[in-house]
């Protein structure tokens, strides 16, 4: 959700190049301001742990790029992503959370107290750290992707597919995520074009079989996106095929499903992760391999990546931190 910068992932360089003067000591330090971070803050504040939360580069996380949220419980008429994040922030602050602007740029988790550098030169020492830095959806890098983000371009079919019922859409990607997104959308859309850069699908055999058995999915092999077109919202996608020919698809939705990048680089010297950078937590908990360091939200969840699951894991992290602190 929030993209945190990497100052240096070498522990020795971290100790050598950064200030060693501790500017502040806090009980619970929360890194990230999406549903996971704010929920952790609400619970920690209510437990009188006086949490300090740093928002990162994108205050509110990925949901701030979402126009409508219809699947979060408690909003019968829906809510915009930015509005929901503002409400979560106000709720966290009401119970005493100190919410700050700032970017975590380096950490040192080798000692009994956990050190985190904010904006490179402000060193905080914390009794417990909750990592809620999220994951960033990968995009192709087209200007038109950015132009229509939230207005026809999405990186989450389960979040936004509802708005395209009965319409024609495009899914870009060839792996399991793309196959899952395409089959999910096929259940509500009239037509789904699965645009694959290679001449084969990288998805598992089971997922490929599901795609091929779904009548309203058409796989376009060896096609790449040239441009997304429209006025205020998307009304078409221009592709080029293997022969260099231009292909126009009349669609209203464009879903990018080429993966996510967890925002975890600065923690790599200390925290156990999988091969793609998602933080490993002890099953059924938010605990990492470092005592007193907890992870929640999309930075440790590569399966669901929903606001409600992120919020739930934020609750777990705060409760785990509370029990750790005693």
Write the layout of secondary structure elements.
Elements (H helix, E strand, L loop, with lengths): L10 H7 L4 E10 L3 H12 L5 E3 L26 H14 L3 E3 L3 E5 L5 E5 L3 E10 L3 E3 L5 H5 L5 E2 L2 H4 L7 E5 L3 H11 L4 E6 L8 H9 L3 E5 L1 E8 L3 E8 L4 E4 L3 E4 L3 E3 L30 E3 L11 H19 L1
Parallel strand pairs: 1-2, 1-6, 2-3, 6-17, 8-15, 9-10, 9-15, 10-11
Antiparallel strand pairs: 4-5, 5-6, 7-16, 12-13, 13-14
Write structural notes for this entry:
With 326 residues, the protein is of the alpha/beta class. The chain contains 8 helices and 17 strands. It has helices spanning 11-17, 35-46, 81-94, 143-147, 157-160, 176-186, 205-213, 307-325, and strands at residues 22-31, 52-54, 98-100, 104-108, 114-118, 122-131, 135-137, 153-154, 168-172, 191-196, 217-221, 223-230, 234-241, 246-249, 253-256, 260-262, 293-295. Strand 9, helix 6 and strand 10 form a beta-alpha-beta unit. The longest helix is centred in the last third of the chain and has 19 residues, at 307-325.
